[in-house]
Amino acid sequence: MASGDLERGTKNRRNNTNFSSYYVETAEKQWTSWLIPMFVVANIAVFIVVMYVNDCPKKILGSEGSCVAKFLGRFSFQPLKENPLFGPSSATLEKMGALEWNKVVHGDQGWRLITCMWLHAGVIHVLANMLSLVFIGIRLEQQFGFVRVGLIYLVSGFGGSILSALFIQQNISVGASGALFGLLGAMLSELLTNWTIYSNKIAALLTLMVIIAINLAVGILPHVDNFAHIGGFLTGFLLGFVLLLRPQFGWAESRQFPADGRVKSKHKAYQYALLLAAIVLLIVGFTLGLVMLFKGENGNEHCNWCHYLSCVPTSKWNCQN
Question: What is the pTM of this model?
Answer without folding.
Answer: 0.87
